[in-house]
Amino acid sequence: MDEEATGGQPGFGTQPLRLVDQRTMTRVFEVTDARGISREAIRVPLVGDGDGSVRGLPGGVWEIVVPAAGPLEPFLARLAAALDGAARA
Fold this sequence. Notes:
Elements: H1 22-33, E1 42-43, E2 53-57, E3 61-65, H2 73-88
Parallel strand pairs: 1-3
Antiparallel strand pairs: 2-3
């Protein structure tokens, strides 16, 4: 990666980053659609971070951050479990 692509930050870009593409969004939507969550109520940053995360925000909005690297399947299972747990609460 060149300096422009890494934001000019030293050390940034030393590990490949997962950019959220349409295929990744489709997989996230499969999980959220199955739970009746409106796509308008989902916020997904365009770059993955860490192991990924999911959290509820005010107004019934969900912030879903996909993992920065590695297989997506374990995260999607965690996402499903987190959303199911929130629905039961």
